[in-house]
Amino acid sequence: MRKKEKRFPDWTKTVVGLCLGLIGFMIPLFVHFDGLSFAGHLTLGIFLVAASFWMLEPIPIYATSMLVIFLQIVLLSTQGPLFQDSSLPEFQLEAAAQEQVWQVPDSAVDGNQLWLRKGARSSEAIQIEVVESEAGFTFVRSGELSEGTAIVSDVNHKLVGYTPASYTLFLGTLASPIIILFLGGFMLAAAAVKYNLDKNLTNVLLKPFGQKPMFIILGLMLVTAVLSAFMSNTATTAMMMTVAIPIALQIDTKDKFRIILALSIPIAANLGGMATPIGTPPNAIVISALNQQGIQLAFGTWMLIATPLVIVMLLAAWGLMRFFYPPTVTSFKLQLDSAFEKSPKAIIMYAVFALTVLLWVTEAQHGIPSGMVAFLPIMALTVSSVLEKEDIRKLPWEVLWLVAGGISLGLSMENTGLAVWLVSSISWDVLPQIMLLLVFGFVALMLSNFLSNTVTATLLIPLAVSMGTSGIAGEGFSLVISAVLIGMACNMAMLLPISTPPNAIAMSTGYIKTADMVKIGGIIGIIGLFVALAYAVLFWPAVLL
Prior knowledge:
It is a single chain. This protein is mainly α. The protein has helices at 11-30, 38-56, 61-76, 167-171, 177-194, 197-206, 213-230, 233-249, 257-272, 281-292, 299-324, 344-361, 363-366, 370-383, 389-393, 397-415, 418-424, 433-448, 453-470, 479-491, 501-507, 514-538, 540-544; strands at residues 90-92, 101-105, 109-110, 113-117, 123-127, 129-134, 137-141, 150-152. The strands form three sheets. Strands 2-7-6 form a three-stranded antiparallel beta sheet, with no helix packed on it. The protein has a three-stranded antiparallel beta sheet with strand order 3-4-5, with no helix packed on it. A two-stranded antiparallel sheet has the order 1-8. The protein is elongated.
């Protein structure tokens, strides 16, 4: 039988993605957007190329993150060619024409704003009242001006509205506390797999669930969720599938229990990842964005916020699968053979794992930052040779690069004013606070079904932060609750096989079809969004007070 030819060759997606990225990068260089600084235009170009490349993947998504950091170093840093030797043009105010009315060059006025020159490369905007214009000069009124005050004489200068940062700011995101937090989690996960702690815990934790098929499923989901809270969702799913597949092979091929078995693990992995700051990259992006605003969300506080939501959604997902795919088999005996290793290295690993998790969940009590705690397993597991160089080479370094690029892009969006500019043209203040949360959550959920949830969080969370810090959203807007809700919504997107790596792993078993995933994943996403919204209104404010 002749194979069906592909409609488009493999290179089409790559070419289209590269072209769109290039066009997106060039648009802000040739089109002037009012109210956006020169550096903001550069950052918008970087944002558009990153969004295009992350969506269409003409190059690997981690490579896109490296491109983002490179472009920031070259185009936005103090040491880059654009800002290396530049300084703000200066105009000093002379005696006032009349009380609090000052004569300034037309080129110094930006609508109802004037920029004070605070230094060679720094400026600050103040509000003014324009009185009149005459012969190239504008008369303005402001109580913040005085004789001798230095103002910026050209509002279109490339340094207006932006103070260039050192290139080390962008490079530093590769070793930020968030990256160290993830690295510590990855090393714990690698050690757990190496010494079979994952399988041993599965064996211990599943025993209480008896022989009823749906209770076995519930046990698998709980174990998967717990492991996913501290391990990579992808690694957890791959590991748990090694437990699930032998079970499925003992079930009749027509029994819907197979479908539930294959669906339950990725769903539990996706939901369980919400429970801790290290569970998924969107969680880390939320923590990082809040840290940049001086808001510290402790490890234990995050768990207190997220764990009740995870429990409710796990039970809801379990009930939905039971309703749509009732199993035929009525009883099933688990056969999982495992024993805890007792070698010196395994014992060291157990101790390090337990101590690290304990310090993470009690951060609010002892005050040691979770990123600092994460260095404990990094140090201990290498010093003790629990993990050797071959193990370290196998760690998912590309995920760390991906997250670092997102963090770095968020810094530039904030520092250049791009994030504020993107949302300032929308009348967000006319929307009730609950509608703001719903819109943010819905957009995050929909985008994450087609994009990486990391990418979606990277694009949306800086916008929420800018709304909170600029006051655009109005009174009563909670920056913490909005950012957390976006992170949760990103994690609950599991509509398609491409939505998350765990979904793709589940599809590879051959036990489920895309329609099964769309049905369950779509319903869970919608239910999850409204449950999260209810928690955001009724429960989270009490926890965060």
